[in-house]
Amino acid sequence: MRFASLGALVPRSRTSLATAFAVLALGAVLPLTAACSTETTNGQSSVTADLVAPPAVPPPIDRSSPAHVSYNLWTFNGSDPGPLIRVRVGDTVEIRLANPATNTQPHNIDLHAVNGPGGGMQASMVDPGQERAFTFKAKSAGLFTYHCAAGIVADHIANGMYGGILVEPANGMPTSADHEYYIGQNEFYTTGATGAKGPQDLDYNKLQHEDPTYVAFNGSTTAITGNKALQAKTGDTVRLFMVDGGPNYASSFHVIGEIFDRAWDFGSLINDPLRGIQTITVPPGGSVITEFKVDVPGDYKIVDHAISRVGLGAAGVLHVTGDPDTSIFNALGPATSINGGSGSATSTMTMTPSTPSATTTPTPAPSAAATTPASTEAQTITLQLKDNFFDPAKLTVKAGQHITFDLKNVGKVPHNLAIADKGGNYGDVASDLVRGGEDLKFDWTAPAATGVYNFRCDVHPTQMTGTITVQ
Questions:
Q1: How are strands ordered across the β-sheet holding 82-88?
Q2: How far apart are CA 99 and CA 327, in angstroms?
Q3: Three-state SS at 130
Q4: Contact of 416 with 432, CB cutoff 8 Å
Q5: How far is CA 203 from each of CA 1, 111, 311, rounded to the nearest angstrom?
Q6: Superfamily for domain range 179-321
Q7: Which residue blocks in 187-344 are alpha helix, DSSP H?
Q8: Residue 89 neighbours by CB distance under 10 Å
Q9: What CATH topology corresponds to 370-470?
Q10: DSSP for 321-340?
Q11: Is residue 76 a contact partner of residue 146, using CB atoms and an 8 Å limit?
Q12: pTM for the model
């Protein structure tokens, strides 16, 4: 298995690792509709359903009786994770796998929603050039993983061959969600170091020692960031279907700045959801369904809270637009003290750093502030992104001046540049992530209003900050 250069970590195969996983009508997101009125041997009508690539989710099921639901197979590495299958308790699900003759190794599928030997993996084992099918009755409501279980199973999963199958309860999913998104987490074990460019092979030694080069959401370190971020508006309820393909790491799934109003632990829809959850553990081969209402606009980071994995790529963004609600959250700015008004309660927290010991390595000091010439002509400012500070961290520009930031990540972990407005609020003005050893151009026009504007790295928002003085 080889990988494309990082920036968009997308697996590609030597021989098109292609146990496929597609629906009969592969294409746009369409409502589930009856394909025909022909009865099958089990007395159920036949239904054709669409599968879509993550983070999209198939629409809720609107029929009231079980059906025979057929799926052909899509190339597993055509979508990482594989597309979300959506069925309902009582449905008879038909899985059909086709392994192109151009492949060199067998594949199969193990669905954790199956009650049957190997989750279907024996019945679905296909050599190159073969096609096989099996059916199963969806008996238990919940979100389940599926994966290839052929050969060295960890190898196939690490190459991206995993996904999720949602079995809705008989009466359907709760109608509380305004948005549904699908997220898969897995590790990549490449021969090159994190941030290395060019095609890379799977490193079996790293795989066996559980030492991943990347930990990614939806098969890419940038799959749900920047202009691909998940979207919502204030007042919306967001539902996330999350599966952990592993093959080795559990996920400490967390949305920074939100609390899960409801979380169906281990993906079970039989049990009542947990409420008021901050972070939830998802084991490899497991899943979780979470819901939360967003009240305040801004960017909410989606992370594995085993937080060093953020530096390996396990980070996404939910971008929320709409009106602020200062009764829920109010950024008070850099005031040195906070005085509560009548009837209010306030507290002050002071953090005093300890004196470094003789063995402590101090953080390198940034160089002097960069000042652009006294002109409103376009200028380029080189900004080095180090682990974890900007160099320089103090900039001076002219009001209305167009700036091109030449962002150079000379560190090892991803960083970005986000610039706040005059009130200190961070919104849409942010670059994409820049991997270690990579460069990125980012354009920004200085506001007409003079003053000091803060900037930061969204991945390291408290450690990695700076200021831009607009004159």
A1: 82-88, 162-168, 142-147, 110-111
A2: 57
A3: coil
A4: yes
A5: 9, 26, 20
A6: Cupredoxins -  blue copper proteins (2.60.40.420)
A7: 204-208
A8: 19
A9: Immunoglobulin-like (2.60.40)
A10: ES---TTT-----S-S----
A11: no
A12: 0.69
Q: Which of 49, 251, 247 is nearest to 166 (CA)?
A: 49
List Cα–Cα distances, 178 to 93, 230, 291, 330, in angstroms: 27, 13, 10, 25
With 0-12 CB in 10 A as exposed, 13-18 as middle and 19+ as buried, what is 42?
exposed
Whether 177 contacts 294, CB under 8 Å? no
CA distance 419 to 224: 20
* Preceding amide of 81 cis, omega within 30: yes
Q: What is the pLDDT of residues 114-156, one digit of tens each?
A: 999 999 999 999 998 999 999 999 999 999 999 999 888 888 8
Q: Domain 2-168 falls in which CATH fold?
A: Immunoglobulin-like (2.60.40)
Least-confidence region, from 21-30, 390-399, 411-420 = 21-30
Amino acid at 19: T
pLDDT band at 284 (very low <50, low <70, confident <90, very high): very high
Q: Which residue, among 185, 189, 194, has the nearest Cα to 435 in the 3D structure?
A: 194
Q: Which residue has the tokens 């991945």?
A: 459
d(CA 83, CA 161): 11
Here the tokens at position 336 are 């040195």
* 146: nearest Cα among 163, 133, 122, 159: 163
Dihedral in degrees, nearest 10, Cα atoms 14, 98, 136, 23: 90
**Which region holds residue 336: left if phi is over 0, alpha if psi is between -120 and 50, else beta?**
alpha
Domain with CATH 2.60.40.420 in the chain: 2-168, 179-321, 370-470
Please answer whether residues 252 and 304 qualify as being in contact, where contact means their C-beta atoms are separated by less than 8 angstroms: yes
Give the start-end residues of each E strand in 189-236. Answer: 200-201, 214-217, 230-233
**CA gap 253, 267 in Å, rounded:** 13
3-class DSSP state of 246: strand
Interatomic CA distance for residues 52 and 58, integer angstroms = 7
